[in-house]
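EI: anyone free to look at a 322-residue chain?
SC: sure, send it
EI:
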Amino acid sequence: MIAYSSNRDKLFATLIWKSIRGLITFSSFATVLLMTIFSVFVLVYAENLASNPQNLNQKIFWLSKAAWLGICGSIFASAVFWGVQAIIALFNRAKRDTYEQTYRTLVEDFGVNTIYELKGGNEACHEYKRLIERANKRIWAVGMSNRNFSRQHMPTIIESIKNNSSLDVVVAFWNPDAYLVVQNSRLEDARSIGQTEKDPNRNKLMLPVFVAQATLEERAPDSAKEIRERQNELKELIQRENSAIKGNLRIVNLSMVTYISCMIIDQEVFFFPYLSGDDSNGSPMIYCDASRGIGKQVAEHIDNLLNNKRFGIFCEEFYRVR
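SC: here you go
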């Protein structure tokens, strides 16, 4: 019973405080409301006095009752007008406050900078390039095949890592040797997808995860061979500049159940999940801050996969410089 009374008192105190704070916040509306209530009472009182015409010439505080009646009527009319204006202003302010609260929640609390309509659009690529040229701590590129990333940004990254010994560069691919094991009851469905391998020890098929995702996106799957070829192309490109590279550079294969495409440049994070349906390259992409909110969680997730020994089973190194 004591606990109940305490909670009730806290609730009442909270409601009272919110009411007072609301009146302070919307002081103009509160003033108009109080003026309207006061003028209504005075107007009713004056109207009662005016019901006897012979009393209209009587004076109160040096003014006739007729004059008081006119004054109260004017105050009431003004209060009604300003009341309407205050209500309109209140709705406008509520709309503005909603936008401000949304901004504070998304930007200040969750660290969302913007959302790009297309992952591989010109606007996003331009921002990539700008940040890569200024990077001084890390550039982590996590993708399925990194096809567009390699073509568009790897030369810029190599130039950056030539001049910065503290820059950490990681290019992560979806592991071409990771498979889903398909049970007996789903063998025919797996065969219809193609590019499966028979488990020699069991009556099961192994479906490459890369092929599985491509199938979910309703597009022709790339092969594991193509991923390895792309990795070797990157390796050859890097080896040609090896002697001039001062920072750390790794090419790795990631194997994980949940997969996202992600670019982390210092404290900036760009990411989106791979989903079913249309090709994921046409999906929107979230750009956020790595120091707080969802950006921090994504950055910590990628950091765990790349650098935490506990999760070493999910990260296989393909090539390293330094």
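EI: Residues 308 and 315 are 9 Å apart (CA to CA).
SC: 👍
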